[in-house]
């Protein structure tokens, strides 16, 4: 995927990330997104369903959407990997910067509820479509 595709998706407020269950059924979830060089970064609860699904199967679809997860553009294929604690911390910083006060309050609330280990970053590299 060319860099303009990454930049376009990273500029969105929300993206719809579609992961796959073991039986192949797709599960789409709207999430915040940041740019991580030539990839996208998202952040989520460490024991969430999407993290479990990505551990089993890393291929995903990513596309722009609204707050409720209604697609606003075509999805593109990608490969998702769970980030290290260091990369997850970097994603938290990027999210606070991009989403302002709402991002900061969300990160603070999450840290108070779950601690730093309760969330993980997910790096999504877009693949050729």
UniProtKB/TrEMBL annotation:
GO terms for cellular component: cytosol. InterPro entries: F420H2_bilvrd_red/Heme_oxyg, PPOX_F420-dep_Rv2061_put, Pyridox_Oxase_N, Split_barrel_FMN-bd. GO terms for molecular function: coenzyme F420 binding; oxidoreductase activity, acting on the CH-CH group of donors. Residues 3-125 form the Pyridoxamine 5'-phosphate oxidase N-terminal domain. Keywords: Oxidoreductase. NCBIfam families: Rv2061_F420 (TIGR03666). PANTHER family: HEME OXYGENASE HI_0854-RELATED (PTHR35176), PYRIDOXAMINE 5'-PHOSPHATE OXIDASE FAMILY PROTEIN (PTHR35176:SF11). This is Pyridoxamine 5'-phosphate oxidase N-terminal domain-containing protein. It comes from Actinocorallia herbida.
């Amino acid at each position: 995927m060319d860099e303009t595709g990454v930049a376009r998706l990273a500029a969105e407020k929300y993206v719809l990330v579609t992961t796959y269950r073991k039986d192949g059924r797709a599960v789409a979830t709207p999430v915040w997104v940041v740019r991580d060089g030539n990839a996208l970064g998202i952040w989520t609860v460490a024991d969430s369903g999407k993290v479990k699904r990505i551990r089993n199967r890393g291929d995903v679809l990513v596309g722009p959407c609204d707050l409720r997860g209604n697609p606003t553009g075509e999805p593109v294929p990608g490969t998702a990997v769970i980030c290290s604690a260091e990369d997850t911390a970097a994603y938290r910083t990027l999210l606070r910067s991009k989403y302002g006060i709402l991002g900061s309050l969300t990160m603070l609330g999450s840290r108070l509820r779950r601690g730093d280990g309760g969330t993980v970053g997910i790096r999504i590299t877009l693949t050729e479509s």
